[in-house]
Amino acid sequence: MSESTSPQKVWLASNDSANIEVDRVVAERSMLIKNMLEDVGDEITQGNPIPIPNVNEAVLRKVIEWCDHHRNDPPQAQDDESDARKKTTDIEEWDQKFMQVDQEMLFEIILASNYLDIKPLLDVGCKTVANMIKGKAPEEIRKTFNITNDFTPRRRSRSAFTP
């Protein structure tokens, strides 16, 4: 590891053509970007950024903000399917505040974290949605997420478990 005073930088290009400079260690919270950097080495420059075609600038900046805050977290395991991760919907206080965004941004962050392969951020996003629906009736969930009930009146009156 080199002992330079400033961290190594990489550039990411959002789908709306914004080039964003990021510390390499922050960008590498994304397994997708980490693998790309391992493949291409030092060819990533401001004039030749890593394209992130599925993510716009606003969402990419939010994802980078999360990655920057979590830069010193232990690296994620490739297939970390621990029981604690699967069974809890507890979210750290900073992450709760980070996820206090409108629904569209929340779902864009979830999609971006899935695409960029940032499992801890994907978990936080999914837990946030789970907490939004926990304890609510189906009609309340439909209202929360603006989901149209497309069941016919006859189907609505039948039990969900009746064939």
Automatic annotation (TrEMBL):
Chain residue ranges for the region called Disordered: 70-89
InterPro entries: SKP1 (IPR016897), SKP1-like (IPR001232), SKP1-like_dim_sf (IPR036296), SKP1/BTB/POZ_sf (IPR011333), Skp1_comp_dimer (IPR016072), Skp1_comp_POZ (IPR016073)
SUPFAM superfamilies documented for this protein: POZ domain (SSF54695), Skp1 dimerisation domain-like (SSF81382)
Protein name: E3 ubiquitin ligase complex SCF subunit
Subunit composition and interactions: Component of the SCF (SKP1-CUL1-F-box protein) E3 ubiquitin ligase complexes.
Recorded GO MF terms: ligase activity
Pathway assignment: Protein modification; protein ubiquitination
